[in-house]
TrEMBL record:
Stored Gene3D superfamilies: Medium-chain alcohol dehydrogenases, catalytic domain (3.90.180.10), NAD(P)-binding Rossmann-like Domain (3.40.50.720)
Protein name per Swiss-Prot or TrEMBL: Enoyl-[acyl-carrier-protein] reductase, mitochondrial
Enzyme class: oxidoreductase
PANTHER family on file: ENOYL-[ACYL-CARRIER-PROTEIN] REDUCTASE, MITOCHONDRIAL
Classification of source organism: Eukaryota, Viridiplantae, Streptophyta, Embryophyta, Tracheophyta
Length: 380
């Protein structure tokens, strides 16, 4: 939580009492005062100052975010100070800053939700982690877009340092969503088929590869846009059985396109509007559509017959809810499994590593303001 970013800096800020739970707003006000005058008298360990992406109000992220330096924070006995290495800009990070995500950190806040870092310093009671180890916040938590994060040991999961950094930074929000959605709704078996829209998203690319590893076919729908032929070729290379643009599916009987591929029993929708209707058309009698995103911002329209005669089930998935359930061990082993696949080259997705110094360019790309761009991963 951004408010937990603390400065127990009584001695440092000229008699202003600042505790572990001092809100970031107060911390930010204190930034304007000289910080280091009494450092020599202060015995507790403190972090280095942190360069952070901060927003004080909700709104368009390119307007309301600023990069600023936050003062050092105290490293308590159970705390780990992590020097962040990389963190992605996900659609949900943008929604949190816009103020439209259901769970948001109190303002002002530091952006970002997942990422990877290197342990910089540990509190005296910390066991099992040492400076130099790589860690990810698991479950993810707000405030990863900054150079140093101090949080309790329980927040951090150690990861293998041979994992490519950009994959360690992005393993939870999207790959874990893909894995859980393949597990949680239908007992899929080898030879079954799934259908999804938004197939070029990181979740979509992971669904294709994780399904393929289990012998599950995937039918993929992408939007009509420049570069759609390259996108189709890329998804097929990842293991997609079929990839269609929405306009290619303007036919009476979409299931007639499937040839020998069995009708899909499960569909994943992260777009809404027409792209969701296409999933419903593809699904087999009694099939299930799981909605996990709404990239087009258009509602889902369902025909009466889809419920009565086709007996479709419509449901949703939210990783944050799954994360908050008591499944820490399962979560850890699933993340290790995914990271292993990344190291073995069996799970890959399109990423662009962007220097943190050029944060606002990466942000504009992530917001779609510079044409279609790969997922932006900030490198600190
Ligand atoms: N429920 C959950 O727990 C959960 C967890 C993770 C992610 N998500 C959601 O899953 C979705 C994908 O996330 P991601 O990080 O994997 O995505 P991403 O890699 O950032 O890619 C964005 C995707 O959205 C498509 N897109 C963007 N604007 C669109 C529009 N106006 N109409 C139709 N498609 C559009 C893009 O298609 P192009 O390739 O054509 O640009 C691309 O496929 C997001 O909605 C995200 O919030 C939900």
């Amino acid at each position: 939580m951004a408010t937990a970013r603390i400065v127990s800096l009584k001695a440092l800020v000229h008699g202003v009492s600042v505790s572990r739970w001092t809100p970031l707003s107060r911390v930010l006000r204190l930034r304007s005062r000289p910080l280091y005058s009494a450092v020599r008298d202060y015995s507790a360990a403190i972090s280095p100052p942190s360069k952070a992406v901060v927003y004080d109000q909700h709104g368009s992220p390119d307007v309301v975010t600023r990069v600023t330096e936050l003062p050092p924070v105290e490293i308590n006995d159970n705390d780990v100070c992590v020097r962040m290495l990389a963190a992605p800009i996900n659609p949900s990070d943008i929604n949190r800053i816009e103020g439209v995500y259901p769970v948001r950190p109190p303002l002002p806040a530091v952006g970002g939700y997942e990422g990877v870092g290197e342990v910089h310093a540990i509190g005296s009671a910390v066991k099992g982690l040492s400076p130099g180890d790589w860690v990810i916040p698991s479950p993810p938590s707000s405030g990863t877009w900054q150079t140093y994060v101090v949080k309790e040991q329980s927040v951090w999961q150690k990861v293998d340092k041979s994992t490519p950094m950009e994959y360690a930074a992005t393993v939870i929000v999207n790959p874990l969503t893909a894995l859980r959605m393949l597990e949680d709704f239908i007992a899929l078996k080898s030879g079954d088929t799934i259908v999804q829209n938004g197939a070029t998203s990181i979740v979509g690319q992971c669904v294709i590869q994780l399904a393929r590893l289990r012998g599950i076919h995937s039918i993929n729908i992408i939007r009509d846009r420049a570069g759609s032929d390259e996108a189709k070729a890329h998804l097929k290379q990842l293991g997609a059985d079929e990839v269609y643009t929405e306009s290619q599916l303007e036919v009476k009987n979409v299931r007639g396109l499937l040839g020998n591929i069995p009708e899909p029993v499960l569909g994943f929708n992260c777009v809404g509007g027409n792209a969701a209707s296409l999933i419903l058309k593809f699904l087999k009698q009694g099939g299930t559509m799981v909605t996990y995103g709404g990239m087009s911002k258009k509602p889902i329209t369902v025909s009466t017959s889809a419920f009565i005669f086709k007996e479709l089930t419509l449901t949703g998935f939210w990783l944050q809810r799954w994360m908050s359930s008591d499944k820490a061990e399962e979560r850890q082993s699933m993340i290790d499994y995914l990271l292993g696949l990344c190291r073995d080259g069996k799970l890959k997705y399109e990423l662009e590593v962007a220097p943190f110094d050029d944060f606002h360019t990466a942000l504009e790309k992530a917001m779609g303001k510079r044409g279609r761009q790969p997922k932006q991963v900030l490198k600190f």
